[in-house]
Amino acid sequence: xxxxxxxxxxxxxxxxxxxxxxxxxxxxxxxxxxxxxxxxxxxxxxxxxxxxxxxxxxxxxxxxxxxxxxxxxxxxxxxxxxxxxxxxxxxxxxxxxxxxxxxxxxxxxxxxxxxxxxxxxxxxxxxxxxxxxxxxxxxxxxxxxxxxxxxxxxxxxxxxxxxxxxxxxxxxxxxxxxxxxxxxxxxxxxxxxxxxxxxxxxxxxxxxxxxxxxxxxxxxxxxxxxxxxxxxxxxxxxxxxxxxxxxxxxxxxxxxxxxxxxxxxxxxxxxxxxxxxxxxxxxxxxxxxxxxxxxxxxxxxxxxxxxxxxxxxxxxxxxxxxxxxxxxxxxx
Length: 332
Ligand code: NAD
Ligand code: DAU
What we know:
By secondary structure, the protein is α/β, with parallel strands linked by helices. The protein has 12 helices and 13 strands.
């Protein structure tokens, strides 16, 4: 049986990927996750014990990682400090996990000759003007803005160097903004959904004109599996579902779907250095690997996501007060 090691598998996108792999392949998955504030064991509830093992561990811990990589056929690396706002507040954990953690995994994969897939973000390319006809492609120069995105960019460059210098059997994917079940409520869409469920008005940073290119986490997972199974070693693939929307539009759709007036939100302090727009051209992935998204309709995916948060209050409720207290301290 093919043995997959998934780092950060108790986080948002990692747990969606584990559910996807169990449903669509016969692989065995070992999750290694530190269970930071962003990790939740409950996100893996209901999966079969004979197919999924869980190890609480830090990817910076070379001994733990060496042992786990040695006993795996491939590594899919999701674990990261992932939130831009936190990186503005305290960058250090981003350097440790995103840079040193990636280095630790690369060295273990090199030592044991293992297949490695690196999960990254479109934010490594910086941002676009609202009226720029260009979208990001695999050849767009790196130009990250935040402590978070600069550490992700650094980790991507480490992977490229390990491929070139040590023939590491690696691929990289850079994906746009994900939404769906199991996303921490610090993030934009689940923060606003759970605000409405709690009777709090949604909060828009600045004027709300910033554009994100939304993709359902299920579609991100199917793309990563396609790259793992059919991708060319050494290549980078951009993942996106043509889902550009500005933040104001997203909040208005959430309010409407939840039975509230479309203007029942507040403008709050903007994010420092706030990237204006991300947009992905995923032609390479679609033409070379035959991938396409199944949630082409953002409205349908968003409605399902609202239902998920409505029906899973016990999953998000314990972190709501502390999350809102953090934002309130920054006027957001
Ligand atoms: P998340 O914050 O929800 O989950 C991160 C997981 O990593 C958590 O379970 C956490 O406990 C774990 N973790 C953190 N530090 C660790 C460490 N040192 N050792 C082991 N585990 C550790 O993040 P996410 O949104 O699911 O993002 C996952 C990956 O996808 C990240 O690499 C991120 O850069 C990338 N990505 C995210 C998006 C998005 O829209 N969220 C888009 C593109 C790429
Ligand atoms: O593009 C991929 C990236 O998407 C990933 O690499 C990151 O890990 C992920 O967090 C996400 O980054 P963003 O910074 O785009 O996501 P966030 O959910 O924090 O914010 C989305 C947009 O919404 C952004 O323009 C800021 C804005 N926002 C956010 C929050 C939390 C608000 O207007 N109000 C809010 O309350």
